[in-house]
Design a protein that fits this description.
This protein is α/β, with parallel strands linked by helices. It is built from 7 helices and 10 strands. It has a single domain, classed as P-loop containing nucleotide triphosphate hydrolases (Rossmann fold, 3-Layer(aba) Sandwich), CATH 3.40.50.300. The longest helix has 21 residues.
């Protein structure tokens, strides 16, 4: 079990995560949804140790979670100039010898011998996802992994994530869109106002769609009312 206990993160006067608590079963895929600015990326950064919380803890099986246990796909992708896809895949495979990059190359159609700098945004995203999934870590954090993917690649990405779950990994994946998560996730957590407002199980996903639509509409109305005249 991965436990987030009373986690609070502040940026100056702004509280981004407010006494947040989650209990995540292992060997599962957990979805995380919320409006822009809800704190999804801050939560992932705190998991990975890039942000130090003001209070609270994250543990796995009762022990503090270590960065060495995590593979993290950040929302923004960066690659060094001159590096080819094969360079990066070979490096990842060197440190994760049980991973087979050929599977991902075939499924995603990666042009591995071309410099990554010339790849499209969608191809770069597929490469970044590949490198993350290849890492043999017990916990995978995927922040908006489907951005820029076409429908065929989205289906392939979901199947590859499920393969990692079947191999024993725990996956937390965020998205703005419920429909990208519902075929994939064992449960979906709604992050709102710095806390987990609701946890939806599979049988509750139809209700989740309606409730999230109402939430997003409320946020839209609030922002519209704050717009300068």
């Amino acid at each position: 079990m991965i436990t987030i206990d009373s986690l609070t993160v502040r940026y100056g006067p702004q509280t981004v995560l407010d006494n947040l608590t989650m209990h995540l079963s292992e060997r599962s895929v957990h979805g995380l949804v919320g409006v822009n600015g809800a704190g999804k990326t801050t939560l992932f950064d705190t998991f990975f140790g890039l942000v130090t919380p003001d209070s609270g803890s994250i543990t796995r099986s009762g022990h503090p979670l270590r960065r060495s246990e995590i593979a993290y796909l950040e929302s923004e992708t960066f690659f060094y100039d001159g590096m080819t896809g094969r360079d990066l895949l070979d490096l990842t495979a060197h440190y994760n010898p049980s991973s087979d990059p050929a599977v991902y190359v075939r499924v995603f159609g990666l042009p591995v011998d071309r410099p990554v700098a010339g790849w499209s945004a969608g191809m770069k995203r597929k490469l970044a996802l590949t490198v993350t999934l290849m890492q043999q870590k017990p916990l995978l954090l995927l922040d908006e992994p489907f951005n820029g993917l076409d429908m065929e690649s989205l289906h392939a990405a979901r199947q590859l994530i499920l393969r990692r779950r079947e191999a024993g990994a725990t996956v937390i994946v965020s998205s703005h869109l419920l429909e990208t998560l519902s075929p994939l996730c064992d449960d979906i957590h709604l992050l709102d106002n710095g806390r987990i407002a609701t946890v939806y199980r599979r049988e509750e996903y139809p209700r989740a769609a309606n409730e999230l639509e109402e939430l997003f509409h409320r946020h839209y109305l609030i922002r519209l009312s704050d717009k300068p005249s």
